[in-house]
Amino acid sequence: MSDIINLSLCDLVSNIKDKKISSEEVSSAYIERSKKSKHLNSYIEDTFALALKKSKEFDSKPDFNKKLPGVPIAIKDLFCTKNIKTTASSKILNNFVPTYESTVTQNLWDEGAILLGKLNCDEFAMGSSNETSFFGNVISPIDKNLVPGGSSGGSASALAAKLTPTTIGTDTGGSIRQPASFTGTVGLKPTYGSCSRYGIVAFASSLDQAGPMTRNVKDSALMLEVMSSFDSKDSTSIDFKRPSYSKDLSKNIKGKKIGIPNEYRVEGMSDEIEKLWEDGKNYLKNCGAEIVDISLPHTKFALPTYYIVAPAEASSNLARYDGVKYGFRTEGKNLIDMYEKTRSEGFGDEVKRRIMIGTYVLSSGYYDAYYLKAQKVRRLIKNDFNNAFQKIDAILTPSTPSSAFKIGEKSNDPVSMYLNDIFTVPVNLAGLPGISIPAGVDKKGYPLGLQIIGKPFDEQNILNIAYSMEDKINFKSDVKDWWMK
Amino acid sequence: MTIDLKTVKHISKLSRISLDEEKAKKLETDLNSIFKWIEQLNELNTKNVEPLSSIVETKLRLRKDEIKSINIRDEILKNSPDKNKDFFVVPKVVE
Prior knowledge:
The complex is a heterodimer. Chain A is built from 15 helices and 11 strands. Chain A is an alpha/beta fold. Chain A has helices spanning 9-17, 23-35, 48-60, 103-110, 153-160, 177-183, 217-227, 271-286, 302-317, 335-346, 349-362, 367-388, 414-418, 425-430, 459-473; strands at residues 43-46, 72-76, 114-119, 167-171, 186-189, 209-214, 257-261, 290-294, 394-398, 434-441, 447-454. In chain A, helix 9 (302-317) packs across helix 11. Chain A is globular, with a radius of gyration of 21 Å. In chain A, the strands form 2 sheets. In chain A, strands 4-6-5-10-11-9-7-8 form an 8-stranded mixed β-sheet, with helices on both faces. In chain A, strands 1-3-2 form a 3-stranded mixed β-sheet. In chain B, strands 1-2 form a two-stranded antiparallel ribbon. Chain B is 36% helix and 4% strand. At the A-B interface, helix 9, helix 10, helix 11 and helix 12 of A face helix 1, helix 2 and helix 3 of B.
């Protein structure tokens, strides 16, 4: 049954609907592979036995009207799953068993999907290489020395290694698109407000968005269709008419105007990335789109803005981890001592660093100089996009300034690690949708991605553009099974 | 602006995260390099710019003011590291 794991999500769904394969066969095939994947460290917790049971239940009473009928899916361990441990890859949540389900995962199960397991990620989604997890580094299936990217590194690694037919991640500054780019997969960050944040372990609430990670664009369209919903449990969820993204998917992008932002030609960007971008433009022209030069003048200020806004929100979100209501506790000689010891032992270094940055920028005397300043610059960045979108339909950029780096290469230099998100962060600050698609490989054979950024709620448009480009690029994933044991 | 060790220790107090001397020194280095990089925001004049706190610039929704019976006490207590009957247990706070 090695064929099963090679099917895209949409093909898998058709095969199940046509009764050519059963849910149990699919789950068994993925479980068998996942069991041999210890080396990648992409799983934190598996639910294989439960998945098999649910698959058998589905097969005995199948409902083929569902969009994901009996499809097993492993997900990032940032989504709360009822009665199944949810850790956010942190020691502080190592014993946390939610009593409720996140809206996004509930949407998956309501459409027939089955949980395969919880996937590793950076601690509280803070990282760009999956090196900050309490459960250890995730390895990229592309090369044993490579990071899979982050923070949805376990998701990217599991997807590229075919341990799951599709997966979901969260993206606060690039955490879906960057790992997708590093592993030759497709990653979509929807418009802020499209997917409910209810039940997702909070990092930076004004930036966090859940989204799909898939093997191709059509699969992303299907997943988004299932994940996105209006939810009264999330005060920033937006009530708009959601299209049938997969049904309306089209390769006709004739006459679309695609902007190329001059400011994304950053210092030190390799010739390979430059060429990739050039190729991307040509693919678009071949599809009948028109290339337009645009300017996003405040681009270089996006990262420093992000590193004020995101830690500020994180420091207040993570104040809830006090060792009282849930999670890990270290005893102390009094209440304050208990808080301080619990948080010192429960959080990893990167999380502590960001809480400290956030606390500092919000503290008395510094609020105006840092936090308020960053909020103002955030407005300027959003205005840049608003102005650009007056005359264009979408924007094309590289997804990352380089291909995947080596484990340990950037872990001692926070600023150099942060710079990796230079092309993805502005999209979160402006709340826009962005998709990364695999577009080629570098000299070493490591995947490179291109990003398409859209107007708010214009996911259909960027999916269509990505769908047309995918056809022309014809990227073939070359992940070998060297990691299998 | 540089962040000295005293400030690091003050932030650590505010954050309720205890730090040993070695970690505090490491953070002093890290925070200084991060804030040196952040300082570039000062190149921008933002005097007349309205701060953006949320991308969703609509008013919060109103809902009906209804009484809902949600009896989830046991669920709320379930994950507590220390509890006694219906209470969370913490070190003594009142002498």
